[in-house]
Design a protein that fits this description.
The chain is of the alpha+beta class. Helix content is 16%, strand content 32%.
Length: 208
Amino acid sequence: MPTSKSETKDLFGTRVYVGMHALAFEEMQRMRALALELHERLNPHGKPWSRLSKQSLHDTDEFSPVCRLLEQVVQTEYGCKVTALTGREVVVHQGQALPLHCEDADLSAVFFLSHHARPDPQRADYAGVFVLVNPSGPFGFKQLPWEGLRSELIYPAEGMLLVFPSYLAHHTHPYNAKEPGIELHFELKVADTHAHQRLRQPSFPRAL
């Protein structure tokens, strides 16, 4: 699976994967078309979070390239095997956003099929930006001397795969483009394969 760029960050004391993956143009087109069709059929309210059906898109052949990619990344970057996976399409229209939430799973993932929002951070415009929140962030405002930022801004792009522990709360800023953003969201259960002992080591010294 060709990858143009990837990074695994040590963020908030955990591992977050951000990768750009060059899937075939025809595969991306088919997935976008099917995701839009599923959104129209399964989401009568039209909100990004209001899908009524529990039908998982991983059972559909068109989405198998992303499912295989996700299993490969989890094995390589987290030293785990995916034991259960569910996925759904998320279509975001102009003015819409995902509220702050977290998932009841081990790992969560987002694959961006299309994204047309154009944020301008210099003007404090974060349109369409995906935000991961430090677990201490929602419960307190005083920042301790050794703490970094209370949130991490992820600027989505077509072909980006984002993987993070499901306990990290996340949300998006309102989307500002006429063309919808089309995403695939996954929740995963995983089992430790003991493949990478280093993944379970603390990233900072514990000695007092």
